[in-house]
Amino acid sequence: MAIEFCPLADEVGNLADWVAVGVGTVGAIATTVVAVLAYLTSNRATDIADEAKKIAQQQHDQTVELQVNIARILGSLLQVEVVTLPIRLGAVLRDFDAAVEPITRHGIVGDTKFSAVIGDLTAGFLPAAEGAFDQIHNLPEELGAHLASMMGMTRNIGVTARKVDSRMLRVSDMSGGYDIVGYKGEGRGLGALRAQIVSMLRSSLGLAESFNVFVKGELLDYSEERALIKE
Length: 231
What we know:
This protein has a domain at about 80-230. It has a two-stranded antiparallel sheet. The chain is elongated, with a radius of gyration of 41 Å. The N and C termini lie far apart (about 140 Å). The longest helix is centred in the first third of the chain and has 77 residues, at about 5-85. It has helices at about 5-85, 85-100, 110-125, 125-130, 140-165, 185-215, 225-230; strands spanning about 170, 180-185. It is mainly alpha-helical and about 230 residues long.
């Protein structure tokens, strides 16, 4: 008996082969597509990273430029106030010594001059710097720190001056005004106030010189003020 082969079986077999080939081809294409996409994605990620670096650098450069510009403006704004500070403090120290009896630091010559000293010490010496306090960080780090320290000293000496002034003994004179005739506190209170003035003067000399270098200004003659802190 002859064995008959079903033509349809051949067709099915051929179709299965073609399907296998097709699946393999699709798989290869899919793999290739994935690889291409991965390559493109990788390149795109690199491009994005490079672009982000450029933007970050631009922002950094702009920030630095802005800080430099603000620092330059601050220099112009504060130059006169800072470089004349030693001279003003020197004048206050001379007035203090003239008002307070030099030997004992207890007796007071007259109310007018001493009251003027208290007024100077409590009014503050750096109003422009105080007004620009939130921008001080734009100055070079060391210079900004020195200026901030000086601002703190001016505030502190104002507190001390008010305390000393409250301990002055005042009596009415014949004109209806008041004269200071003594100090009710401990003697070292006046000495401590004078020491603070001297300390501020010494610090202001260094600040003024550094600030002048920063703004490229002409340095003033502080020889008289230096002589005061050596006495």
